[in-house]
Amino acid sequence: MSPQEMTKLVQSELRRVGCLTASADGDWNASSQRSLTLFNKYAGTKLDQAGELRCALQPQIAM
């Protein structure tokens, strides 16, 4: 999976849980980062980069 595809997947999940309102376009930008911050607040996590979130999702993606 390419980095852009993985970013789009992460954005799609952030949209699914209501943290991202922008489209899932595969471009990690300020809107995506704000949505990750919002996700952290509600989920009680401390992911601070898209890469960390991708790593957290990787085992689920492989299934």
Task: Briefly characterize the structure.
The chain is mainly α and 63 residues long. It has 3 helices and no strands. The mean pLDDT is 83.
Shape: globular
Number of strands: 0
Largest sheet: none
**Secondary structural class:** mainly alpha
Rounded Rg: 11 Å
Secondary-structure element series: HHH
Question: Averaging pLDDT over every residue, what do you get?
Answer: 83
| Unreliable spans | none
Number of helices: 3
Q: Could you tell me how far the N terminus lies from the C terminus, measured between alpha carbons in angstroms?
A: 14 Å
Task: Name a few traits of the molecule.
single chain, 63 residues, mainly alpha
Q: What can you tell me about this protein's structure?
A:
The structure is a single chain. The protein has 63 residues and is mostly helical.
Please write out the topology.
Layout: H1 3-16, H2 30-43, H3 50-62
